[in-house]
């Protein structure tokens, strides 16, 4: 065991050689700190510990691979650094300083309070998991540079009012999600949001840039978009027998696509879609047609509807100035299964 306590400082740097820890490195009581400076630590089988709120672990251009960080104090990222290789971080505070990028590759966070003044990066092929009880906040904008995968198995409490997802990665709701700030502006610049669960509040705004995608893709489950306002230039879709529910939202769909693939459905619940394209798929093999179903009072305005499946209403659906409504597969005769019909309210 290596311990720094009572305002003591333990410095670890590659200038002293490479490091492997299978024991414990501890920032101890009384203001002890451990500073990794240009250091690469193989922590597989090892543990880093801050024993109380006075203890700090600092990372300066360093990388920690594997093992556990048991934190009741502060993990402070002072210059761009990396946690990778199945690192688990439990408890305490994690601060990413201004202008700094923290790369989180195969990292699981549990009960961690994040103050982010920089950027969180997830590389291609790697995963960041918010397991349970995590929170994130800070000044300005929360930016994820995500070419890997972010997974919510628990709830992340967010107090940022502006959140941006850059890159071309995946953001998966797997029984968890995000709660917190009611007036968040969320911008997706190219990620795929998938899984199931609830995303967005009625006072929040979602901008889905091309080629950004929201894909409800878990069979028998619902992915619900609850944003008050959505600008979609990408794709909002239901696939694989799932349901995408758009609840009480106004969507500017100019340049965008809302689609239900075979065996799946898009549910409009008191929602309005303006412009763009709506599409339902014909039956395929054992899969039924794709369906767009409207409940409550919903409206589709100035949009192209490519209906090879079914467009149904269980409430009041207004079709206003529809430029085209095709009821056939490309190159085929009009499909007899295509319909605009009434359905029981859901």
Explain what this protein looks like in three dimensions.
This protein is mainly beta and 346 residues long. The protein has one domain (77-342). 0% of the residues lie in helices and 58% in strands. It is built from no helices and 44 strands. The chain has a 35-stranded parallel β-sheet that branches. Strands 2-5-8-11-13-15-18-21-24 form a 9-stranded parallel β-sheet, with no helix packed on it. The N and C termini lie far apart (61 Å).
In short:
The chain is built from no helices and 44 strands. 0% of the residues lie in helices and 58% in strands.
Biggest sheet overview: 35 strands, parallel
Q: In total, how many domains does the architecture comprise?
A: 1
What is the number of strand segments? Answer: 44
The gross shape turns out to be elongated
Strand content: over 45%
Helix content: under 10%
Any idea what the radius of gyration is?
24 Å
The secondary-structure class comes to mainly beta
Mean pLDDT: 90
Runs in which pLDDT lies below 50 for 5 or more consecutive residues are: 328-345
- How many H/I helical runs? 0
N→C terminal distance: 61 Å
Write the layout of secondary structure elements.
Layout: E1 2-4, E2 9-13, E3 19-20, E4 24-27, E5 33-37, E6 40-42, E7 47-50, E8 56-60, E9 63-65, E10 68-71, E11 74-79, E12 81-90, E13 93-96, E14 101-110, E15 113-116, E16 119-122, E17 127-132, E18 134-137, E19 142-146, E20 149-152, E21 155-158, E22 162-166, E23 170-174, E24 177-180, E25 185-188, E26 192-199, E27 205-208, E28 213-216, E29 222-225, E30 229-232, E31 235-238, E32 243-247, E33 250-252, E34 257-260, E35 265-269, E36 272-274, E37 277-280, E38 291-295, E39 297-301, E40 304-307, E41 310-313, E42 316-320, E43 324-326, E44 339-342
Parallel strand pairs: 1-4, 2-5, 3-6, 4-7, 5-8, 6-9, 7-10, 8-11, 9-12, 10-12, 11-13, 12-14, 13-15, 14-16, 14-17, 15-18, 16-19, 17-20, 18-21, 19-22, 20-23, 21-24, 22-25, 23-26, 25-27, 26-28, 26-29, 27-30, 28-31, 29-32, 30-33, 31-34, 32-35, 33-36, 34-37, 35-38, 36-39, 37-40, 38-41, 39-42, ...
């Amino acid at each position: 065991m290596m311990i720094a306590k009572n305002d003591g400082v333990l410095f670890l740097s590659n200038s002293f050689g490479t490091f492997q820890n299978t024991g414990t490195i501890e920032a101890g009581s009384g203001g002890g700190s451990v500073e990794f400076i240009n250091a690469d630590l193989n922590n597989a089988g090892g543990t880093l510990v801050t024993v109380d709120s006075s203890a700090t672990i600092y990372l300066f251009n360093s990388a920690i691979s594997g093992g556990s960080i048991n934190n009741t104090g502060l993990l402070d990222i002072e210059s761009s650094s990396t946690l990778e290789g199945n690192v688990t971080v439990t408890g305490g505070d994690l601060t990413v300083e201004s202008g700094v990028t923290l790369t989180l590759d195969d990292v699981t966070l549990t009960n961690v309070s994040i103050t982010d003044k920089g950027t969180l990066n997830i590389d291609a092929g790697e995963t960041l998991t918010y397991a349970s009880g995590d929170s994130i906040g800070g000044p300005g904008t929360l930016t994820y540079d995500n070419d890997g995968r972010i997974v919510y198995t628990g709830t992340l409490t967010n107090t940022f009012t502006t959140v941006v997802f850059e890159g071309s990665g995946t953001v998966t709701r797997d029984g968890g999600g995000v709660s917190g700030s009611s007036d968040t502006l969320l911008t997706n610049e190219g990620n795929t949001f998938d899984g199931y669960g609830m995303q967005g509040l009625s006072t929040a705004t979602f901008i889905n840039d091309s080629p950004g995608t929201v894909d409800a893709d878990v069979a028998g489950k619902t992915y619900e978009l609850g944003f008050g306002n959505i600008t979609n230039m990408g794709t909002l879709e239901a696939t694989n027998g799932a349901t995408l529910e758009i609840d009480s939202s106004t969507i500017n769909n100019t340049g965008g696509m809302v689609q239900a693939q075979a065996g799946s459905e898009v549910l409009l619940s008191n929602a309005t879609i303006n412009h763009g394209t709506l599409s339902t798929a014909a039956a395929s093999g054992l899969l039924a047609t794709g369906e767009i179903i409207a409940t409550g009072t919903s409206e589709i305005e100035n949009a192209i509807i490519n209906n090879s499946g079914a467009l149904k209403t269980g409430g009041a659906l207004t079709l206003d100035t529809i430029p085209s409504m095709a009821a056939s597969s490309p190159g085929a005769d009009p499909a007899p299964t295509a319909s605009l019909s009434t359905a029981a309210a859901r």
